[in-house]
Amino acid sequence: MVENNSTTNATENEEFVITRVLDAPRELVFKVWTEAEHMQHWWGPKGLSIIVAKLDVRPGGIFHYIMRDPDGNEMWGRFTYREIAAPERIVFVNSFSDAEGNITRPPFDEPWPMEILNTVTFSELDGKTTLTLRSIPVNATKEEVLVFQSGFESMEQGYGGTFDKLAEYLAKV
Question: Which CATH class is domain 2-46+85-94+106-170?
Answer without folding.
Answer: alpha beta
